[in-house]
Design brief:
163 residues; five-stranded antiparallel sheet; four-stranded antiparallel sheet; 2 helices
Length: 163
């Protein structure tokens, strides 16, 4: 039987030296920094894409609600442009259109804002109209960190075309 005094250790069994450990940590730090930069870009792309799909879905929902309820539905953009509210504008119609019965409010993802050329109003038949009740197109613009990245035209039929 061997005792502890007779054991010999070679360099491979001792583990890593301090220099090897510092080099490994340095490489890990560089890779982690590169990953963090890519993660930020990935999240920005996700936020832009998510805002587009939410807007497209919400316009379709607004059109359906207007036809189902037989009344006017309006989309009102918040003062900071980072959210919008949707609701019914019942008779007698207000000018400018106001939400009398709220349906929902959508907060856009971080750093995404929305703007419109005019209020988005759907009449009781599901058509896009202006404040005078005439069929019209409404253009919505999505921006990310202050830069426009997507323009959507909502046609009188409620169809959304992105450019």
């Amino acid at each position: 039987m061997r005792t502890a005094s007779h054991l010999t250790f070679n360099r491979a069994s001792l583990g890593m030296t301090l220099l090897e450990l510092l080099v490994a940590m340095g490489l890990f730090s560089v890779l982690a920094f590169a990953g963090a930069v890519q993660f930020g870009e990935l999240m920005g792309s996700f936020n832009r894409n998510n805002a587009r799909h939410e807007l497209e879905f919400d316009v379709s929902r607004i059109r359906s609600e207007a036809g189902a309820e037989g009344t006017r539905v309006v989309l009102v953009i918040g003062a900071d442009r980072s959210s919008y509210s949707v609701g019914f504008d019942r008779l007698p119609y207000a000018s400018p259109p106001v939400i009398e019965v709220p349906l929902f409010r959508r907060n856009l993802p971080n750093d995404v804002t929305v703007a419109a050329t005019q209020p988005l109003i759907f009449d009781s038949r599901g058509y896009v109209i202006n404040e005078a009740g005439q069929l019209t197109n409404t253009v919505l613009t999505l921006s990310y960190q202050g830069t426009s990245y997507l323009t959507a035209t909502v046609y009188p039929t409620g169809h959304v075309a992105f450019r």
